[in-house]
Amino acid sequence: xxxxxxxxxxxxxxxxxxxxxxxxxxxxxxxxxxxxxxxxxxxxxxxxxxxxxxxxxxxxxxxxxxxxxxxxxxxxxxxxxxxxxxxxxxxxxxxxxxxxxxxxxxxxxxxxxxxxxxxxxxxxxxxxxxxxxxxxxxx
Length: 139
Description:
139 residues, Lipocalin, alpha+beta, 2 helices, globular
């Protein structure tokens, strides 16, 4: 009876750990922004893709460069194609006019899903508010 209880507990630990671990599709990847397509047909293209990057750690941590600022936080994927970011601890430098910083920082908590297609990562905002398109980078 004791060994059965031990096996059940071990199985539960594995299930909980698997559920809490970020999706293997994103962990260990790094991306740079190609464009933002708003739900209102607004298209925003960065002046330099390399100034807008996001790196997903395999441990559920995320790091981001949003123009002249850098940040760290957490991410999780509770199911297929689901994505949610935790709060982003972000530096507060004032970026140059035309920066996408304010838009991205405002949208960050509203990302709810993702799709990887043809080497691009698409992050969708809740309520069809828009989609951020990224391309893979070398870490």
